[in-house]
Amino acid sequence: MLLIHLLSAIASDILLMLTAVTSLLYLRQDYCLKHRKQIIALPSIQAIDSLGLRLLISAFVLMTLGILAGSDLAYQQWGANWYLDPRQLWSMVNWIVFAGVLWARFWVGWRGRLAVLTTLTGVTLMLIGFLTLHYFSWSRHYGL
Q1: Domains along the chain?
Q2: What is the DSSP letter of 40?
Q3: 82-103 confidence digits (pLDDT tens)
Q4: Which of 35, 63, 97, 136 has the largest count of CB atoms under 10 Å?
């Protein structure tokens, strides 16, 4: 279970970073198109958006698997109050944010700039939260 948790969490984080890079490339192409600047040699803006969405979906699936496996491990290790660990709580907040982004993309119809900016905001919140939790050692997470 630990291997599943670690591999899926790491893969999810890598895919989210790639999603952020793709989002930045989207914003660059969007800027170039709107301001009639020379467009850098990238795929079309629709292809970039499609790639970003596929990366986000893959990251979300792996994040879900990592959270489920990690929750089982935490319950085995810490007992009934496993969900009170700040790292567990922050993981759930991130999951809810990305679930909201995917919901908005599929059911509300968000595309383009709004979807990209929301995705970048989610990745930024994830990074800030995890770096803060790691720096201040507010979690028992590393004691597994």
Answers
A1: 2-143 (1.20.120)
A2: P
A3: 767 788 888 899 999 999 999 9
A4: 63
